[in-house]
What we know:
This protein is an alpha/beta fold. The chain has helices at residues 15-26, 49-52, 67-76, 97-107, 144-154, and strands spanning 5-11, 34-39, 57-60, 83-88, 119-121, 127-130. The chain is globular.
Amino acid sequence: MEPAITLRILSHNRREFLEKTLASAFAQDEPFDAIELYDNGSDFPVKNLTEKYLSLRLAVLPQPVTQPENFRRAFGDQPKTPWYCLFHDDDVLHPQFCRRTRAALKQWPELAAISCNGEVIDKLGKNHGPLLDGLKKNKWIKNPADLAVWYCRSYRDWE
């Protein structure tokens, strides 16, 4: 099952979404090596989630910080695995996500990052199409600056 991958989930006060995200993360057809929840001071007992998901590692803040600070915290902590994925508490993973990510890392060992597209689904369940319109097929980005530029140009904010 190499390469080893940690899943990190950013969370803040969206319990109804977080539970779906965690269910999808733990229902992978090939499991992650670790799943970590980076909670940003939610006002519900996040610690109770470890009763249902025994291997869930919590990185919980007692008081909220800014979203960028929680993001930096999740990126800055050294994972126990060579690879990690970063998702949010309202992201639901395809059941084959981890296996497919491992396969891509095996096929292209020179990769520094992998990104995937998603579909925007509102609270009523209506699908609004892809999150990133510009990601219709594999896109090779050669450095972090180009990734940042592409991502910022591609992002659409849905309400």
